[in-house]
Amino acid sequence: MGEYEARTGRMCKPPLQSSRRKNIEFEPLSTTALILEDRPSNLPAKSIEEALRHRQEYDEMVAEAKKREIKEAHKRKKIMKERFKQEENIASAMVIWINEILPNWEGMRSTRRVRELWWQGLPPSVRGKVWSLAVGNELNITPELYEIFLSRAKERWKSFSETSSENDIEDAGASAADREASLELIKLDISRTFPSLYIFQKGGPYHDLLHSVLGAYTCYRPDVGYVQGMSFIAAVLILNLEEADAFIAFANLLNKPCQLAFFRVDHSMMLKYFAAFEVFFEENLPKLFLHFKSYNLTPDIYLIDWIFTLYSKSLPLDLACRVWDVFCRDGEEFLFRTGLGILRLYEDILLQMDFIHIAQFLTKLPEDITSEKLFSCIAAIQMQNSNKKWAQVFASLMKDNKEGDKNHSPALKS
């Protein structure tokens, strides 16, 4: 028997204590539990003082763990309470918007009560409707007109997908080549739109819809065509509106002076917007303004991306939608006020950075940016300089530009 056990590597059954010790390596014992363990029999036993100290350490660790658990439970409870309160506020606000404000839109939209409610963020169920009303439809686009331009876009996609000779392309002229490049850019950009959501990518539920709205717009406004950044604006509208309504809002939104200046790459106008922004930058954040100046870090480095996508690429989607809410209420001024709010929120961090790190930071903002913190900083931004508001500052810059053009006019010099 002994010989067999020796050959197979087995041993006689040891005493109970040794058996328990042998199996320790298989038992998932925690570090805290090991403190309480007696030493193996081949080592000196713990002294009473050491055993008491280990017991005290263990009790302290257990107490600390319980404290952390209670703290985490309180934190979870607080978050749940805030979420519940937020949901209650949204529900009560939704009732007010649906029953009181929307039926009396023109009479109530500018009242103090509505403006204050608007600032708090629109309930998702009425967001699209309020955006449509606020943006308006100065272009008088109808759903039928959208269908016409969508049909043209589809015809164009079909013709471009079919094999054509080089002569045909040459005969079509440069404008056709531009349109083709524009359509190719749309395809490329759609896959880059909110990639983490997976709904606009190929095979996603909103891919074709986004393609349709952008394609129809290039036919509607061939003078503007497709510009990178447009896909994010169209995508946000699609998430909140029906297809035709999204196109109507999209076309009207891009027809606003600020958006038109940026999407048509009107350098002269863009520079005026940057100059106006810097007036309020210096007024609100003088230390950071001088810090940026010392590195020759101009607004175009970070503002272009923010304005092109109306913050929908730079901020978390729910926060971007809240920025859109107030943008629809206040117009272009709020886009620049939001930019200053972001700079104020991260002022202390930015003051410690050099040119490269500032540019990188503002290109990709932290993902943990919260609505409460950002809107608190935006609220603290004063859009007034020497008793002049945004519109007045911008108008004076435009006036200076026109007078400058007159002074440099050859006709006036002769």
TrEMBL record:
Biological process annotations from GO: vesicle-mediated transport
GO cellular component: cytoplasmic vesicle; vacuole
Keywords attached to this entry: Coiled coil
Domain of life: Eukaryota
Region entry Disordered, spans: 1-20
Coiled coil segments of this chain: 48-90
GO molecular function, one term: small GTPase binding
InterPro entries per the UniProt record, alphabetical: Rab-GAP-TBC_dom (IPR000195), Rab-GAP_TBC_sf (IPR035969), Rab_GAP_TBC_domain (IPR050302)
Gene3D superfamilies: putative rabgap domain of human tbc1 domain family member 14 like domains, Ypt/Rab-GAP domain of gyp1p, domain 1, Ypt/Rab-GAP domain of gyp1p, domain 3
Bilayer-crossing regions: none
Protein name: TBC1 domain family member 12 isoform X4
Source species: Alligator sinensis
Lineage per the UniProt record: Eukaryota, Metazoa, Chordata, Craniata, Vertebrata
